[in-house]
Amino acid sequence: MSRNMGRGYGDRGERSELADRVVRVNRVAKVVKGGRKFSFSALIVVGDMNGRVGAGIGKAREVTEAIRKGMEVAKRNMITVPMVGTTIPHAVEYKWGAARIMLKPAAPGTGVISGGAMRAVIETAGIKDILTKSHGTNNPINTVRATLAALQQLKTAAQVAELRGRDLEQMVGKRLAAAYKGNSPPPGGEVAAAAAGGTDRAPERAQGG
C-alpha cells in the first residue's frame, strides 16, 4: 500500500529550522511461518525554504520511525540550489531512469506550476516561481531523484561567466547583469540564456533580447 501525503511534518516539536514533507509511505508485508510481518518505507523531502533541499528514504517497522530515519538521511544529503530572485537561472531537462523532467524559470507572481513529488522538492527548496513538466514514470522516488539531479545542473550567469573568464556584462548585457547583481528577477521574467551553457552564441541572443 502506498499513499501520497501532502502535509508537512516540520512542526512535530523538533528543534529544527528545516521544513519537511512526507511524499510517500509504502507498506510492505512479508509472509513468514507465523503469519505476516509488516514494515514501512517513507520518502521524505527536507529543505530550509532558502535554496537548500534534500531527500531520503527511511525503513522501519513503524511509520513514525521510518519518517524519522528518512529525515535524517535527507538532512545528510542536502544540496544548494542556485536561484535568481524567486525562480531558477535557466531551463533544464533531465532524465533519471524512466523519469524525464523539465524545469523552466517563470516571471514573478507565476507561482509553482507543478504537482506530486516534484512540487514537494521545489517548495521545500524555497522556489516561488517555476514551470515544470514530468514525463514517463510517475514513481515518486525516481521523480524526486530526477528533480534533485536537475537542480544540481543549474548555474547562475555569474558562475558561467567566471568559468569562461569573462565579465557578466559580456555574457548577458548591462540590463540583465544589473538585475543578476541585485539578486532580483530580470525585467519581464527574462533569464540569461548564457546560464544554459553550451556555446557563446546563447549570450548574444540573450543580450539582443
Report on the architecture of this protein.
With 209 residues, the chain is an alpha+beta fold. The chain is built from 7 helices and 9 strands, in the order ββββαββββαβααααα. The protein has helices at residues 63-76, 116-125, 140-152, 157-164, 168-172, 174-181, 201-208, and strands spanning 2-4, 19-32, 35-47, 52-60, 79-80, 92-96, 99-105, 112-113, 130-136. The protein has a 5-stranded antiparallel sheet. The radius of gyration is 20 Å and the shape is elongated. Mean pLDDT is 78; it is low at 1-15 and 191-209.
How would you describe this structure in keywords?
disordered N terminus; alpha+beta; five-stranded antiparallel β-sheet; four-stranded mixed β-sheet; 209 residues; elongated; 7 helices; single chain; disordered C terminus
| Run of helices and strands | EEEEHEEEEHEHHHHH
Provide the structure class.
Answer: alpha+beta
The major beta sheet can be summarized as: 5 strands, antiparallel
Strand order of the largest sheet: 1-2-3-4-5
Tally the beta strands. Answer: 9
Helicity level, as a percent range? 25-40%
What sort of overall outline do the alpha carbons produce when their principal axes are compared?
Answer: elongated
Oligomer: single chain
Overall mean pLDDT score?
Answer: 78
Residue windows where pLDDT falls under 50 for at least 5 positions: 1-15, 191-209
**What's the gyration radius in Å?**
20 Å
Q: Count the helices. How many?
A: 7
Strand-residue proportion = 25-35%
- First CA to last CA: what distance? 51 Å
